[in-house]
């Protein structure tokens, strides 16, 4: 059964003025679509064809570079669209807020660490907020389309928030100013969705 690209959960212009419509269209309709198409090509006729995306990701070292890059690309972007949204931003509440304060001291410190993880990731990759095996929150980053669920990841855990720092995520509006993008994106993070991911992961 081939993997399919889900529609964005909101309109492509819904994150304006923070993330522009054209970036969202190209990012979802072309980049994410290409990861899905190339993943399907890479697994066609192999034993991975009948596995879930999560099963592929967790054992990704068994598969080709094409499966790692495109399977990661599909998983990561599917998460990314859901942790963004219109009428979002602000700060987390409830259990997630308590866990953030316990681990990082404050929301501002978490934000600083996520921005630093994204800004210092050389080349393309992702900044993550994860739940580690010990149930604790942690900030990490991965190169390319790797993610912390992969058996090849240096720091492992369940990602509850991912921030795409590939140039395709920000170049049209922010050009080379990745830190400016990493400030702006906090206006569209859907902390309710992140809190749901946290509740499911811990
Ligand atoms: Fe991306």
Automatic annotation (TrEMBL):
Keywords: Metal-binding, Oxidoreductase. It is an enzyme of class 1 (oxidoreductase). It comes from the Bacteria. Pfam families: Sod_Fe_C (PF02777), Sod_Fe_N (PF00081). PROSITE patterns: SOD_MN. InterPro entries: Mn/Fe_SOD, Mn/Fe_SOD_BS, Mn/Fe_SOD_C, Mn/Fe_SOD_N, Mn/Fe_SOD_N_sf, SOD_C_sf. It catalyses: 2 superoxide + 2 H(+) = H2O2 + O2. PANTHER family: 37S RIBOSOMAL PROTEIN S26, MITOCHONDRIAL (PTHR43595), SMALL RIBOSOMAL SUBUNIT PROTEIN MS42 (PTHR43595:SF2). Belongs to the iron/manganese superoxide dismutase family. This is Superoxide dismutase. It comes from Sphingobacterium multivorum. The lineage of its organism: Bacteria, Pseudomonadati, Bacteroidota, Sphingobacteriia, Sphingobacteriales. The gene is sodA_1.
